[in-house]
Amino acid sequence: MAAMFQPPLQTNTFSPPVTTASRSCLSKRQEAADTRIRYFVWPNHALLPTQLLDRSAHKVLTNNAIAFPALEYGPDQGDPRLRKHLASWLTTFFEPQEPITDDRIAISGGASQNLAVLLNVFTDPSYTRNVWFVAPAYHLSFRVIQDAGFHDKFRAIPEDDEGIDIEYFKREIKNVEEKAKSQGISHPKHKPESRPWAKVYKHVIYAVPTFSNPSSKTMSLRRREELVRVAREYDALVITDDVYDFLQWPASVASESQAASVEKAHLPRLVDIDRYLDGGAERKGADGFGNTVSNMSFSKISSPGLRCGWCEGTPKFVSGVAEVGSTHSGGAPSQFTSNILAETMESGELQRHVKEQLQPAYGKRYRSMIQAINDNLVPLGVRLPQTDRDIVGGYFIWLTLPDGMEGGALVERAREDENVVVAQGELFEIPGDNNHPRTSFKNDIRVCFAWEDTDALIEGVERLATVIRAMQHEQTTTGSYKIRLQVEQEAKNFW
Q1: What PANTHER family does the database record attribute to this sequence (predicted)?
Q2: What backbone phi and psi angles, to 5 degrees, belong to 241?
Q3: Where are the domains of the chain?
Q4: Furthest CA-CA distance within the chain
Q5: Of 384, 414, 411, which Cα lies nearest the Cα of 399?
Q6: CB-based contacts of 217, cutoff 8 Å, min separation 6
Q7: Nearest CA-CA partner of 136 in 436, 469, 457
Q8: Per-residue pLDDT at 436
Q9: Residue 419 pLDDT more than 90?
Q10: Which of 3, 86, 211, 254 lies 20 to 30 angstroms, CA to CA, from 138?
């Protein structure tokens, strides 16, 4: 490994700023200024399609028939070309029973922005009972949902080996619904019921069913179908954060020299299941809005700086998304970016970039890191989830620490002794509902393999192993690491 980490495709020593999103996976080696490892939740610079975007932007800006509409206000539902190409690609990759049509798609300013839009249009804190999270959950979604008025209505649903403890959820949502009825909560107070283009759901469920952030688990087909049925029974909207679905690859390959990729999704999304299960989202007696929406983004498959994404649902639901006031006033989110992305998809180059560049590159990083974890951490008692999968993906690996070892203690020691900073599991607990044994994550950590190269990822795992061995030795002798952590915490509280 080079003495000084140089971000790929850069002539300087650029370091991404420490934002809230990147801080949790940041790693620095402070004892030696010339040896640094950075674990950012950012795509590696070598994987950004700069030349593709340059060519596509040039095509847009040198053709007035495209450039002028691209630079004006766009249609509320988003650029028609981009929606058309997305519908085609989604149909090819997910293979639903019927082709996906462009009226099922609305363009957004990214998955985070669109989460706020969905809550704005389809919820009312006076009527929507709870927002349910499959726990552990993506922690930066909490603020978005709190801003929508749900700060005291968070509920956690534990995971199981199949991705969600559905029986636990059934019991809890039934209790909540009975309580709401006894309190006479029957109508929204802040959203008019006369909006023909929207509705207010009684519950919201937030999940990352495929390669979850942070747990890296994938929800089974059985659990996906069960979750859709529960959502229908209790008038719930399932918002699935599907931003990692295109980033999947074989868990093992005969040789890393082969470019391993996956042409078809190994599981349908919940929004696909909602189309056909038990008569589908538009079955007799249903209101046509459906109970699922797929929230997707170009951040993981192209570049996060583009700030562009899309959502998919029933045509009636998607029409409601496009009617949100901010879009009704300002026009299509990311209108200019949408036209550039439409060019990348019309040529097929973005699709090839995902299959031929991203899937093989991330797959190699993942397999190398998993091998390092199996070699260095598993013998120490660290555990991995769902180790029997043939298809894996995403950005993250979730690690359960040896019995008796707390993530907070490991985080402190790893940063101080080895200059490695990982995300402790408590960061992903659901605020206000972390008392259940399976919704508390004091013994877990999350690591990310998206930013660093393979050698740095392996070195980071080896450094973690050094810390864990030291802590285990102390635990079996004096237990001093707990005392040290307590003293350090008291000092922080004092200052």
Answers
A1: AMINOTRANSFERASE (PTHR42858), LD15494P (PTHR42858:SF1)
A2: -85, 95
A3: 20-48+353-494, 53-350
A4: 75
A5: 384
A6: 159, 163, 211, 385, 386, 398
A7: 436
A8: 86
A9: no
A10: 86
Task: Tell me: pLDDT of 5 over 50.
Answer: no
Residue 312 β-bridge partners: 105, 294
Count of all residues that appear for the chain in the document: 495
Our measurement of the distance from residue 138's CA atom to the centroid of its chain's CA atoms, rounded to an integer in Å, reads 7
pTM of the complete model: 0.91
Report helix, strand or coil for 203. strand
**pLDDT of 229 over the 70 cut:** yes
Report how far apart, in Å, the C-alpha atoms of 269 and of each of 50, 90, 166, 221, 486 are. 30, 11, 17, 9, 45
Q: Is 100 helix (H, G, I), strand (E, B) or coil?
A: coil
Q: Cα–Cα distance between 215 and 85 in angstroms, integer?
A: 31
Q: How far is CA 418 from CA 305, 393, 425, in A?
A: 32, 28, 19
Kindly report, residue by residue over 110-163, the tens digit of the pLDDT. 999 999 999 999 999 999 999 999 999 999 999 999 999 999 999 999 999 999
Contact (Cβ atoms closer than 8 angstroms) between residue 342 and residue 351: no
- Quote the Cα angle for 327-333-335, to 5°: 125
Amino acid at 118: L
Read off φ and ψ for residue 187, nearest 5 degrees.
-145, 145
Q: What's the rounded mean pLDDT across residues 381-407?
A: 97
Q: Does domain 20-48+353-494 have CATH number 1.20.1250.20?
A: no
CA–CA dist 24, 33 (Å, integer): 21
Q: What is the pLDDT of residue 255?
A: 75
Look over the chain and give the mean of its residue pLDDT values, rounded to a whole number: 91
